[in-house]
């Protein structure tokens, strides 16, 4: 194919416009935390206790010194399994201070998933809260991994975290300096929505760059519910440290306490999953809640209908609310609207289905997944990325299938861009259905279902058919008081609005809730298993 033709359809994002610390993340964090020692780094969303960067830095240095004493070396893997609290970021930053590689777990994961991940990374040290210790003990036993455990809290059996924060020899401490900014700084894990999670190796260059890209979004105070198992929370931690801004530290999401947190701490930026967004919409806004300080709401990790986004914007007048697109493999956000640019703000407000324009330092092209042809505007294909923020590869696994032969990383997502270079993410390739040889995007049917006035949430899966391939089936959660809606009603509703090939030939199933990952994404594979095994 003509290279000039292909180059015409390669979209390039703007330059980042920042200078990265060549000595790596540990050094950059040490410098920034020292510089911002009097600023508030984090606040406990339950108790209201504030933690300055100076106090946080002291604990991180002490923990780093203790890590060195017990033999933690550069490139060793350390992990943590804990709900969020004021000390949960300390092992992460301390590991970067000594050149170790964090690979965090989430206590809401299943035992099977924890075993799988521990086998992958075989950590030298595990930090655990008291609620997660039984899970970690069982997982380590099944994984046959020997490691040292550190407890957040009291323990007669293991080292206690307080032993790590009693060192006061901070005056001469120097953090680890990298030799190459492409070195792996952090191992994150894929979300597991379509298969077993894989360890994703992210570089100092990529994570520092993404942290700088996010700085313009955070402003003073950011609220996010995800643990450090998720790239969203890690990116915000890094951006906050680099900018000296504050994070509200909270336990898992509860709709009834959300508004109190936003009001009490004058939150300026919020990151939400689509399921959390819908829960907020469902519960409504309490009277006399002040959100004048709230500048932006970013929704990531899945799709949200244009109607739900419209309702969210009505619920938060004066707040820029949008659907972003990011991947762990890209160290965070790759598509978003620049809220400092009036032209992009106008596009954001007039194109509710778009995830935005290409983020700084990324290049992108759309490729036909069958032919490999590079596509132009308004043509759907696989979204592919290049850039310094793209992952190094999968940890201890073959990564060749993650890239095309020409070096472009495959996102695994189907999407397109329009004449304004605004991108739209349509579906996951692995979730695409094939009916009578036609590719069917479940999200297209889902978006139609979500326009039904009595449907709260909807997911479309494929029922295997020897004759036709996949028969689309809708799994639907109705709004309260809508129990009179029948399967026939919904099937007819879809038939009247979209082409014949998208009909719900597999039928409709009704549920009260959906199985979710710990970050709030719907577990489509598991949901499909439940339907096929007639448990739904």
From TrEMBL:
It comes from the Eukaryota. One of its GO terms (cellular component) is peroxisome. InterPro entries: AMP-bd_C, AMP-bd_C_sf, AMP-binding_CS, AMP-dep_synth/lig_dom, ANL_N_sf. GO terms for molecular function: CoA-ligase activity. Residues 445-521 form the AMP-binding enzyme C-terminal domain. Pfam families: AMP-binding, AMP-binding_C. It is found in: Peroxisome. Keywords: Ligase, Peroxisome. Residues 30-395 form the AMP-dependent synthetase/ligase domain. Belongs to the ATP-dependent AMP-binding enzyme family. This is Luciferin 4-monooxygenase. The lineage of its organism: Eukaryota, Metazoa, Ecdysozoa, Arthropoda, Hexapoda.
